[in-house]
Amino acid sequence: MLLELRIRAWVYPTQEPFCQGEIASAVNDFDKFCAWRTLQTKSIMKPMLLAAALVSLVQLEGCAQNGKKNVSTKKDNSNEVSRHVGGPCEGCEAIYESPIAFENLNQTDSLPDFAEPGPKIRISGTVYRSDGKTPAKNVVIYVYHTDQTGHYTDRGDQKGWGKRHGYIRGWVKTDRNGFYEFYTLRPVSYPNSNIPQHIHVTVKEPDKNEYYIDEYLFEDDPFLTTSERNKQEKRGGDGIVKLILQSNGVAHGTRDILLGKNIPAYPSN
Ligand SMILES: [Fe+2]
Questions:
Q1: pLDDT by residue (tens digit) across 58-79?
Q2: Same structural domain for residues 244 and 116?
Q3: Which of 83, 141, 185, 242 lies 20 to 30 Å (CA to CA) from residue 250?
């Protein structure tokens, strides 16, 4: 597909590709998420630059989930895209790879790295319905993040999306009070990057399809610049947590999740 993009950009210099959803997934599934449109300008540089940008983004390692930072998921009537709550999301279906059936999940999980060396953290919070005040029970939350080297490490026994998300992932389900928590190590940024440390998160409400929300980010991360903060869409509410070291050596951060908040195609009732 990348070669096709390059060739197309050269052969049709007055056309440009445009995609919806995560740009990497969009390019990999071009027919579903992308289309070609005629440039309003006669510039031949624009399509070439776009093609180059696509190539660069596709070659990024790691994130296999969200398209929120690069491509708008706002509805574009000029392109036929199958839509559901939250818009396109590559890898959100990994939530269904829970080793424990949803009905048997509980509100707490320890991710596989928690027993390993590194800064231990606990994230907890309450999930609320779209009214912002009613606790939401039975909401499944899937999280995954990089290891202490900044990689999504597959230890060789991962299956499905685990091959890309790595072994550090976990699932919880909110209790009757909407409460959830998970224990893990604080993730490390990608090697040789200034991308903030982050934990990817997907949620699944009982009566809706799964969708991603803003990643967990950390207030004291030096890479969490003003620019990075401004990029956040606040899907599900603010994902930035402030970690406070506890007497047991585990730093605790709180994040409440507001279902439907800034989520495309979320039903109004
Ligand atoms: Fe990532």
A1: 333 446 455 443 333 233 333 3
A2: yes
A3: 141
